[in-house]
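Hi F.,

I've been meaning to write this up properly since the lab meeting, where we talked about keeping a consistent format for the predictions we share between groups. The idea is simple: the sequence comes first, exactly as it goes in, then the structure tokens exactly as they come out, then a line or two of notes. No screenshots and no reformatting. I'm using this chain as the first example so we have something concrete to point to.
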Amino acid sequence: MPEDTVDSGLTRRVLAHASSPEEKLERLLAERSRDLEEQAARFDTALGDLERREGLLRDMRASVERTLRLGSTDLRERETELEQLDRDISERRSRLAAAEGELDRRRRELGAVELKREAVEQRERALAAREEQIEAKESDRLADLQSLQAAGAGSADQAGALGGEQAVELLFVPGTAYALVEIESRTLRPGALLELDGESYVVSRLGPSPLPGATPSCAYLERVPGGSSDSGGSS
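Output, unedited:
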């Protein structure tokens, strides 16, 4: 309602009940004062409500700002975590690449080792076969030597019948492989010393040649380590 209308109505009510002008004025002032007080009370109420709303607005604004700050902080933390995760992934990829390279290198080394081992095994098998062949040959030579010695032992009595000395043209030289050495005819006796190729030998016995059908007499020798030949026995 407009203020002029309110004042007109108030004035008419006061003037209608007043008996004198002074009383009318006092009543009018009293009514006006009450009306102003009511308006002031309404203003105070409206002001309080406005202040309350402003407080709520400030609280809401502070809450929004706090939420935004928390959101920004959380966002920065998440960004930091993502950056750290990206670095961790990069480091893991680097370590994985290095591990794969090391694995490839070890595989190549293992392949080389396997090839070397196979070559060594083949060499060992070849050596074993060679040793077997050598042992077989040594066995054959030993059997031949035993046969020759047995043949020479059968003629020891014939050498004794010649007075212990005999002209020989063949020497039976022992060693890793026996050898038959032809010499110019010379008289030897058991126990005589000979020197051949820097080695000293002693005549162990005299007998016929171990070769089938051979007629020259043979002196069977034994090695004398560190020995020297006598005046009548050097070759």
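Notes:
The beta strands are 166-173, 179-188, 193-196, 199-208, 217-223.
Residues 154-223 form one domain.

If this format works for you, I'll send the rest the same way.

G.
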